[in-house]
Amino acid sequence: MSEALAYFLDEETVCAEVDFPDRGIDFAFMLKPADWKALLKKWDDYSDEWRSAITYFAGFAYLEDSAVIILKALYEKNEKIVLQALFSIYESMNAQIESEGHKRKQTGKQPADKAVYTFSVKDRQKIQEELALRSMEFEVYPELKQLQDMITRSV
Description:
- By secondary structure, the chain is mainly alpha-helical.
- It has one domain (3-153): Leucine-rich Repeat Variant (Alpha Horseshoe), CATH 1.25.10.
- The protein has helices at residues 3-9, 11-16, 22-30, 33-42, 48-58, 63-74, 79-107, 121-133, 142-153.
- α5 runs parallel beside α7 (79-107) and α7 packs across α9.
- The longest helix is centred in the middle third of the chain and has 29 residues, at 79-107.
- The protein is globular.
């Protein structure tokens, strides 16, 4: 087991370090796709607080790797976890768009306004439904409005 996976399986540490996320963010980048799947297998064995923390850290990884966790969180009954999933989708998509834009700027190509990751129709609809439920909160959470715009553009 990798050090990064062991970190995320330590519920007490992961939950405590959400407020000081540097180490968790570093470890999120170290996780391999198989590690994200291993976390998914443990999903039901841990608390809602752990699920929310894992979903938070998943937002700092590429969606190609962490989507298995973020999308699992999106379908949870706990609204706090669903909201964290939306923020993590936003964070990951935004980082990818910025990274792609930086690469294109260096090569002289037109900047991208869409993320690389493609959601299934079902997942895209779920994201749009959850955002619609929270549309009254867009002033408080402008990231949600921006996510709505990103999802719409990525069709």
